[in-house]
């Protein structure tokens, strides 16, 4: 009886403690995400009004690369640094990670690099959360949970998907294992950060609710086949980005010169070939179009190439929104091939390529529900799980650990 009463008395104290910590982390993370989203809107609008800014992309890459070399060497590893600190805590993540990655990402978008925003949100969230771990003198295990909260809150607030953010923070750490002791803290921080971001007046993209067919054999088979292709596309994206990064590191030892070269190639292509500007920046208008009407397959390949070159050469940002673009346009092309509704395969492609690249099928399924409505749930789950299986043993996060293999034969 005493143990039972002790349980019921200790639980409210535990919940209250984590709610307080969630407020301390979620409010500043949501505020940072709101400012970041507003800054991205300004950068995108300015670039679209002044397309000649693309000529300055090599200089922008050189300057940001030099700043990270000179002042940000300790935070250069970005998302992987945060994941490593969760797995093996060593030192507090420097707070300068937040302003440096924020400014670096906004500059990348202003001048036309093809990068995303999730990496910036995760790094801002992790840096802010770890400052509280230091100030509150938290032990190593509690600090791990706090960093998970930072990841989830950053993801949730920048995309407007608190449920997906909650599970993403738990799922991205390791393949085959989730930290359920962090579930409530991560949920609380994600919801608070999301609400804070909205209170500041930040706007998220609202995608059309997916009108999908009822579950039947033909669309399910189409989604299964598409899911396998989405996984292979995710694997291609990860491989190509890493290959470009490795090649440039071998050829160009001085880090700031790599984004200069990558930026020069991108600028020359954009200014010399009409229509390629649809492959720079976030590409949200193309995503919205691909969810409604047919688009050509070369949109997928164009975004794949420009994003791999941008990230591989060292521009700051993230992979996720470009993966949304790649998945949506690829799903659109597959819908035309399989004679299925564009809305079905484009919507599931939106999340499934990301699921395979990040090894986060559950978070990606929840994101589909939050963005496209509950009717997409069974199709999104099928596509995300199949993509996860076909994407291979590694993804876009090098520090992501393998706790259990995706299927028994993989370890052989």
Structure, briefly:
With 412 residues, the chain is mainly α.
Outline the structure in words.
The chain crosses the membrane at residues 15-40, 52-73, 93-115, 145-170, 182-202, 214-237, 257-276, 342-359, 371-391. Pfam families: Voltage_CLC. This is Chloride channel protein EriC. It is found in: Membrane. The protein is mostly helical and 412 residues long. The protein folds into two domains: 8-199, Clc chloride channel, CATH 1.10.3080.10; 217-411, Clc chloride channel, CATH 1.10.3080.10. The protein is 70% helix and 1% strand. It has 16 helices and two strands. The chain has helices spanning 2-49, 57-71, 79-87, 97-111, 118-135, 140-159, 162-171, 183-199, 217-251, 257-272, 284-290, 298-313, 320-338, 342-358, 361-372, 377-390; strands at residues 174-175, 401-402. Strands 1-2 form a two-stranded parallel sheet. α1 packs across α5 (118-135), α1 (2-49) packs parallel to α8 and α2 (57-71) packs antiparallel against α4 (97-111). The chain is globular. The model has no long low-confidence stretch (mean pLDDT 94).
């Amino acid at each position: 009886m005493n143990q039972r009463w002790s349980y019921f008395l200790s639980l409210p104290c535990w919940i209250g403690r984590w709610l307080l910590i969630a407020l301390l982390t979620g409010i500043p993370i949501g505020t940072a995400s709101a400012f970041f989203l507003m800054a991205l809107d300004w950068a995108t609008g300015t670039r679209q009004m002044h397309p000649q800014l693309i000529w300055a992309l090599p200089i922008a890459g050189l300057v940001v690369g030099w700043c990270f070399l000179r002042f940000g060497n300790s935070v250069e590893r970005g998302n992987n640094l945060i994941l490593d600190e969760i797995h093996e805590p060593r030192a507090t993540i420097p707070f300068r990670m937040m302003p440096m990655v924020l400014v670096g990402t906004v500059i990348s978008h202003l001048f036309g690099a093809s990068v995303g925003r999730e990496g910036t949100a995760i790094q801002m969230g992790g840096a802010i959360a770890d400052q509280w771990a230091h100030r509150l003198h938290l032990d190593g295990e509690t600090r791990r949970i706090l960093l998970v909260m930072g990841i989830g809150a950053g993801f949730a607030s920048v995309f407007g998907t608190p449920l997906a953010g909650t599970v993403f923070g738990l799922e991205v750490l390791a393949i085959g294992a989730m930290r359920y002791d962090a579930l409530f803290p991560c949920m609380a921080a994600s919801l608070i950060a999301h609400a804070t971001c909205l209170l500041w007046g930040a706007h998220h993209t609202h995608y059309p609710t997916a009108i999908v067919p009822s579950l039947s054999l033909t669309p399910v088979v189409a989604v299964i086949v598409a899911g396998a292709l989405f996984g292979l596309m995710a694997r291609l994206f990860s491989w190509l980005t890493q290959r470009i990064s490795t090649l440039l590191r071998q050829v160009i030892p001085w880090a700031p010169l790599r984004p200069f070269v990558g930026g020069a190639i991108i600028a020359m292509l954009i200014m010399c070939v009409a229509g390629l500007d649809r492959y720079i920046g976030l590409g949200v208008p193309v995503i919205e179009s691909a969810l409604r009407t047919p688009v050509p397959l070369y949109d997928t390949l164009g975004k794949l190439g420009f994003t791999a070159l941008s990230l591989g050469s060292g521009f700051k940002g993230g992979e996720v929104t470009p993966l949304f673009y790649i998945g949506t346009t690829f799903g659109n092309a597959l819908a035309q091939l399989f004679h299925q509704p564009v809305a079905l395969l484009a919507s599931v492609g939106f999340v499934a390529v990301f699921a395979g690249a990040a090894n986060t099928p559950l978070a990606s399924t929840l994101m589909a529900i939050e963005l496209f409505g509950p009717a997409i749930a069974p199709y999104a789950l099928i596509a995300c799980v199949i993509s996860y299986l076909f994407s291979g043993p590694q993804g876009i996060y090098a520090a992501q650990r393998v706790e259990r293999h995706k299927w028994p034969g993989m370890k052989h």
